[in-house]
Amino acid sequence: MARQKRVCAIHDISCFGRCSLTVALPIISAVGVECTCLPTAVLSTHTGGFTGYTVRDLTDDLSPIAAHWNTLGLTFDAAYTGYLGSFEQIGIVSAILQDMHTKGALVICDPVMADNGKLYPAFPDNFPDGMRSLCEQADVILPNLTEACLMLGIEYKPGGQTKEYVERVLRELAKLPRKTAVLTGVSFEDSKLGAAAIDVATGEINYTMTERVPHMYHGTGDVFASAFTAAHVAGKASGDALAIAARFTADAVARTLAAGTDDRFGVNFEAGLLSLAQAAAE
Ligand code: PXL
Question: Which of 24, 102, 131, 233 has fewest C-beta within 10 Å?
């Protein structure tokens, strides 16, 4: 049997609400890839729509955890970053990524910080500059349109996107990572939603669209990026991994809409894990 792959997932744990590590860990594990967790913070819930949540910042723990792993000689096939607990963590995570990359890890950054044109409430105005520098260290980045616009200083235009606008954002985004920039939340018609990817080396752009469910659920960006990471590290080329991730996410959203779940509780991705494992293994 081939050597088992190992990913280091660097996100918070929102204990309730299906996002960040509570999504990344099961999704990466489902495809047979080992998922090591570097938690950036522990929250009772995510910050999207809940009030009164608890936050335990783990900024001071990140370097000691990574240093302990180094004494064990651990290496990673990929490092996958998402929600960070503070601005200060960007520099710390940057040093950890640099070390993992030197030892062979593919670096996948989802610059989680904003949606619908707005920064998440926990982050200062200079956060996009910090996330931009992290993306410049990555092989693959997966911002949504809001995050891309904030990092690039481009005007955010919601709804009715044109191909010209999306491709302008993508060409600017392609200046950040080493290999691939993926823009999520792309939509040219009301009935379809998906992602656009640009290959940094060739400038080639590809779209992956699925049917749009007319409802927004929390954590779908994390579900998509985790499924992409899982399928890609399991051996799928990035274009195939994007298609697998889009299908997995759209199915989870459709299932959740049918169940009438509270938007804040995240999506039922669990029922799709078997299909994800099969798609990644085909
Ligand atoms: O899904 C992104 C995310 C992750 N973690 C926390 C969040 C959010 C988005 O709001 O609040 C704590």
Answer: 102
